Amino acid sequence: MTVESVQPETSAAPAELREPPLAGGAVPVFGHGLQLVRDPLDFMSSLRAHGDIVRLRLGPKTVYAVTTPELTGALALSPDFKIDGPVWESLVGLLGEEGVATANGPRHRRQRRTIQPAFRMDAIPNYGSIMEEEAHALTERWRPGEVIDCTSESFRVAVRMAARCLLRGEFMDERAERLSTDLATVFRGMYRRMVVPLGPLYKLPFPANREFNRALADLHLLVDEIVAERRASGQKPDDLLTALLEAKDDNGDLIGEQEIHDQVVAIITPGAETIASTIMWLLQALAEHPEHAQKVRAEVESVTGGQPVGFEHVRSLRHTNNVILEAIRLRPAVWILTRRATADTALGDYRIPAGADIIYSPYAIQRDARSYDRHLDFDPDRWLPDRAKDVPKYAMSPFSVGNRKCPSDHFSMAQLSLITAAISAKYRFEPAEESDSAIRVGITLRPNNLRLRPRPW
Ligand code: HEM
Asked: What's the pLDDT band for 7 if we cut at 50, 70, 90?
């Protein structure tokens, strides 16, 4: 897979451009901030009715929200916007300043060149056997009828798959557990810091702040352990970590320790959180829609002839793939993205001033009635080719487009297909009494506390 080339958009701002309208409902002092905090998903979904781009007041700050598929695509493809703004400022605290997810400009381009080979389409089959092992091991951990905690199970398999494939290390359960506990705490704290930016208050020794700092420190320690172990082993398997340890900067010197560290954090962290959240939504979709669970099972059986599903079957699992796409459409793990304008510029017919913060929501875009018939229905068949062609461009870009596009789209879809196929071949799912599948909004979206009982078919 290659990084998509970035086509220049209009960067001069001609006089006839308009200022985006102010979205309705702003109140004194807080502006739209309270609505965004109270009900971010509904609020973001309501904005298109106010305009293609609207201004929001968040306290003293003005933020621009882009609401149409076409303009979110133009935004992601334009060189006049860089990765920055509220979400990314809070991510820098976690991912560091030197990793691919937070870098901009030449450093970002160089880093993408280093990591890209590990995610290329032709590299994915190398991960096949690890993905198979992990997917089947997941189903073997579960006992028929016993409640599974979908949050920890999803995190565990997501962390293990990413780390075993990309860092080729022995990734013990204890580390997967630590990583997922740390990430949960850190992501919760970061989201709080993003929506309630109380600056210095987060430095005070309150229990929540101490817990956040402890989890963040442990996450970094864990990554240092992984890098140190690889160095000590003297081994150089063909993986992402070797590519990072051998990567050179623009002067031809090996990149520094901090950059290696930040790169590992910047790749494993989004990898674990997004895949784990998506697995949780998939489990919930299978429990809520037994007819599709049954259809997936029948497809897997017909493709594998009743043998354990393997990597070589993934391409043929059409309905399974459509179930995954539909789960991602309705519950995209990455539900909000931000950019910052680097110059006075234009987006559509609107004037965007240099330094403006822009936000948009893949959740709102992917559930919009203007783009999808029966937009809130779970309907995997909408991804059959003769129906999918009617979906407007950029109305389904859960991995984004342009130079910041997720490098891991093929890697992610392969993992998700194998997991969905392996669990559906063996089990159907019923919600346990204590299950709470309400959406928990954080940096990513996931169910509050999904607990299911696997039942053999
Ligand atoms: C369902 C799974 C996933 C979804 C929905 C997803 C979504 C995204 C999106 C939307 C972006 C672009 C952010 C932006 O435009 O500002 C992104 C970037 C990124 N993702 Fe993913 N992702 C997924 C899985 C993964 C995995 C498994 C990994 C790594 C193992 C990963 C690594 C990254 C990295 C490193 C970036 C930053 C790229 C850059 O800035 O150049 N993602 N992801």
From this structure: very low
| Bridge partners, residue 440, by sequence | 446
Nearest atom (ligand 1) to Cα of 362: 10
| pLDDT tens digit sequence for 128-162 | 999 999 999 999 999 999 999 999 899 889 988 98
Most confident of 90-94, 217-221, 233-237, 422-426: 422-426
The DSSP 8-state label assigned to residue 435 in this structure reads -
Pocket mutation for ligand 1, best pick of 408, 412, 446 (most atoms within 8 Å of C-beta): 408
| Count of alpha carbons within 13 angstroms of residue 62, beta-carbon side | 15
Any atom of ligand 1 within 6 Å of the Cβ of 263 = no
Please give the distance, rounded to the nearest whole angstrom, from the Cα atom of residue 14 to the centre of ligand 1: 34
In this model, does residue 273 exceed pLDDT 90?
no
Assess whether the C-beta atom of 119 lies below 6 angstroms from ligand 1.
no
pLDDT for 15 equals 58
> With a 6 A CB cut-off, is 337 part of the ligand 1 pocket?
yes
> Ligand 1: which residue has its CA nearest to atom 35?
267
Task: Give the number of other Cβ atoms within 10 Å of residue 315's Cβ.
Answer: 11
Q: What is the per-residue pLDDT across 293-343, written as a single tens digit (0 to 9) for each?
A: 999 999 999 999 999 999 999 999 999 999 999 999 999 999 999 999 999
What is d(CA 187, CA 306) in angstroms, rounded to the nearest whole number? 40
Is 101 close to ligand 1, i.e. is its CB under 6 Å away?
yes
Residue 227 host element (H or E): helix 207-233
> What residue spans define the domains of the chain?
14-456
Residue 412 near ligand 1, beta carbon < 6 Å = yes
Specify burial of residue 262 (Cβ count, 10 A radius: 0-12, 13-18, 19+): buried
Report the topology of domain 14-456: Cytochrome p450 (1.10.630)
If you average pLDDT over residues 232-237, what whole number do you get? 88
**Residue 419, ligand 1, Cβ within 6 A:** no
Question: Sign of the CA dihedral 11, 14, 17, 19?
Answer: positive
The per-residue pLDDT of the chain, averaged, comes to: 90
- Closest Cα to atom 33 of ligand 1: 406
Q: Which of 416, 397, 456, 413 is nearest to 74 (CA)?
A: 397
What pTM does this model have? 0.92
